[in-house]
Amino acid sequence: MSFVLQTTDMDLGDTPIENIFINDYMPMANGTYVKVYLLGYKYAHDKDTNIEVNNSTIAKHLDLPLEDVLRSWDFWEEKGIIEKVREEGTRNVNYEIRFLNLKQLYIKNNINLWAEDKKVVKPKLDDTKDLVDANKVPEINNMFNNIDYILRRQTVPNEKKKILNWIHDYNMNPDVIEKAFYYSIERRGVNKLPYIEAIVRNWYNDGLTNMEALMEHFKKEDENYYKYQSVMKALGLDKRPVRADEIKTMDVWFKKWDFTLELVLQACEQDKTARPSVNYVNGILKSWYEKGIKTISDIESLDKKEKKTSTKSNKGSNKKAQASVTRFHNFEQRTDKYSSDELEDIARRKRNAYSQRAKGDA
At what angle do helices 193-205 and 157-170 cross, to 10 degrees? Predict the structure, then answer.
């Protein structure tokens, strides 16, 4: 006697995915890595011995190069949630993938945390080579240069390693890490790394891991800072911190002159110079303030008025030009009363007369 479940011709089953993967691991990976993990996990969950699946199968199913599949397993192995099992001495690409139980890993880590009374963290950068390699990446190198500018000093190697680990631990883009330094120092007046890391951690917990999400957050929580950043971005200057004198100038626009951000950004669009600046935009806005402009519609009305004035000026110039026409221009030429055929007949008679005189002289 045996017990058998009937199967369907179509795959209408379910694959349970642990929330730990969705909450903690999925956000740190790109789409390809996630797709490879999920499909591989499905194959492992199905346990159908009649179907042979391997890395080549996954590559074909997802329409990916085999190298991308292998790179995905390298990534998840590095994160510690899978193990690659190969036959000893072989380098076959279709090795076995063992998915580790994430709940068990979580419990184990927390037991260690309790037993050792210290926080369990991901592997950190240990040597100078890692730091040198990281500096070869343009985005990382640019981040460190801007952080040095914000701190007004050079960061030491140990500090740089900590910062790189923030990118790893919190899945943060380098420009967001850089913005955390600026926000902490310029807005909060604190330049200590633990405080800045706390800001990064809070942003991570709120899902603010890229600049778009961060700017939306500032729009709601720190309106002034959002305005400053919007102006700098419109001028193409958002890759550096806002200077104190620029903040002072912008405060005049928004607080003293009571300009809207929309109007200020309109002024930024009119800065077509090779090196846009807050001072140039200030000149435009000062002119608008003196003319009583407060809205975009005011600018449109002013443009129409100036265009109308310019048209009247041009008409006056045309009249003056017409008045300077002399009597010579009004002189009626004698040829005006002849047709083209008559003029040609006159010319022919003159040629014949000239020819007759020439023969007589001869």
Answer: 10
